């Protein structure tokens, strides 16, 4: 049974969407699913974790000096 307090810790699990929420005049949308039918999220494998770390290292490394920068928190971009 998925944790209903944290819907991000679950996945649709093959069920059909029950609704669609739209914003920006329908150009952006998200499918909504029933939480009670959701399945728990699959755990990350060691291979996936290593690949993610490698990708993040490439993204956070300066191209000219080779120094890796770590960012804490969320980067907020202004609206266009």
Q: How many strands?
A: 4
Structural class: alpha+beta
Sheet with the most strands: spatial strand order: 1-4
Strand/helix succession: EEEEH
Helicity, as a percent range: 10-25%
Q: What is the CA–CA distance across the termini?
A: 41 Å
Q: Biggest β-sheet, characterized?
A: 2 strands, antiparallel
Describe the structure.
The chain has one helix and four strands, in the order ββββα. It is of the alpha+beta class and 80 residues long. The protein has a two-stranded antiparallel ribbon with strand order 1-4. Strands 2-3 form a two-stranded antiparallel sheet. Strand 2 (19-23) and strand 3 form a beta hairpin. The mean pLDDT is 82.
In short:
With 80 residues, the protein is an alpha+beta fold. The chain has one helix at residues 46-60, and strands at residues 10-11, 19-23, 28-32, 39-40. The relative contact order is 0.15.
Question: Any key phrases for this structure?
Answer:
alpha+beta, single chain, 1 helix, two-stranded antiparallel sheet, 80 residues, 19% helix
Helices, strands, pairings?
Elements: E1 10-11, E2 19-23, E3 28-32, E4 39-40, H1 46-60
